[in-house]
């Protein structure tokens, strides 16, 4: 059986934390699909197309990772791409309630889908796209937290 893991999110933008989890997922999956939800964020900093392009660039060295966007329910997209597993990161206890709700709802909607939670690398544990966005917007240095392609995209937006 080929194990296809779906790693969904808003990825506005992809951080080193997301990158870490996408690569870690390859330890147990044959293929990983990074799935960007088109309708998750109302006013994203980066357009859907920009987010797809950035993730492709960041993970281009890994042929077993594919980047897709999707509309509608994750549970339906998982069915369409024959994914068996949804991967989500758990950083702190504060993530747990929302993640637990989502995992149960996704199982309700697609009983063939298991959610697995991965713990990020310690130095990336307190990282989030929203924090990175805010720091970048206010002129702070986010070099450590994102791939150079994302850094360049932030600089381009700020011009
Ligand atoms: O990175 P995020 O914003 O925490 O990701 C949330 C995401 C995109 C995984 C979630 O909102 C999602 O799955 N959206 C697709 C629509 C859907 O299936 N909603 C019901 C989830 S139980």
Bound molecules: 4'-phosphopantetheine
**Counting H and I runs of at least 4 residues, what is the number of helices?**
6
CATH architecture: 3-Layer(aba) Sandwich
How far apart are the first and last residues' alpha carbons, in Å?
49 Å
Specify the structural class: alpha/beta
- Which sequence of SSEs, written as H and E, runs from N to C? EHEHEHEHEHH
Number of strands: 5
Share in helix? 40-55%
CATH-defined superfamily: HUPs
Read across the widest sheet, the strand sequence of neighbours is 3-2-1-4-5
The best one-word shape is globular
Radius of gyration: 15 Å
How much strand content do the residues show? 15-25%
Write a concise synopsis of the structure shown:
This protein is of the alpha/beta class and 159 residues long.
